Amino acid sequence: MRQAKMSQRPDTETLFSRPDTFYAYAMDGTRDSTRQDWVRAAIIGGATYFFLFAAAAALFEAVSQLVAVPGFDGAPDYAIREPILFVTCWIASLGAAIGVPLRPVPRLVMGFTGFVLLLLTEVYVSLALQNESPLALAREFTTLGGILRLIGYVGFGLAPLLQIWIRLQLPDEHGNGANSASS
């Protein structure tokens, strides 16, 4: 598969003379797709990523409420909850990334789309369901528990990009990679 992509590499004149060719090559390594293809895939992947994560997080929240320990709220609660939710978002990102090119820009668009949907949902839940003002929501993020939640949100947004970095670090079937003995 790697050989097929190398044979599709456009020459420099073609690459820079047509913007669609440049964007396609920069985003997925081929010249037969357009910028709209990867943008659409990244946005749909980001929305799918958010919905998979939201469903898993809602299930996790319901279970955690059933086994809640009285007085165990705030920062200790988030310190336990956030790593579990990060693993959940990592798995959801893997499932949602099918069809999204394994390149940084499409994965950033995917993560950003999911991140924006997550923040919009947070604002909606706080305003509509909990009757909190936007100022109360902003104050909540100044506590240690709120800071841990924000770190989790940023991790959620960056998970699709981090998966590329990890994949580049692992050796491939030929032993090539940053962590391989031959490099």
Verbal overview:
The protein is an all-alpha fold. 74% of the residues lie in helices and 0% in strands. It has 8 helices and no strands. The chain has helices spanning 2-7, 12-17, 19-28, 35-66, 75-96, 104-129, 134-140, 144-169. Helix 4 packs across helix 6. The chain starts with a helix and ends in a 14-residue tail after the last helix. The relative contact order is 0.12.
Give the arrangement of secondary structure elements.
Layout: H1 2-7, H2 12-17, H3 19-28, H4 35-66, H5 75-96, H6 104-129, H7 134-140, H8 144-169
Helix pairs in contact: 4-5, 4-6, 5-8, 6-8
- Radius of gyration, in Å, reads 20 Å
SSE order, as H and E? HHHHHHHH
Helix- and strand-based class? mainly alpha
Q: What's the main sheet like?
A: none
Q: What is the count of helical runs?
A: 8
In whole angstroms, how far apart are the ends? 21 Å
Low-confidence stretches: 1-7, 19-23, 179-183
Number of strands: 0
Q: Name the beta content range.
A: under 5%
Helix proportion = over 70%
How would you describe the shape? globular
Average per-residue pLDDT, rounded, comes to 75
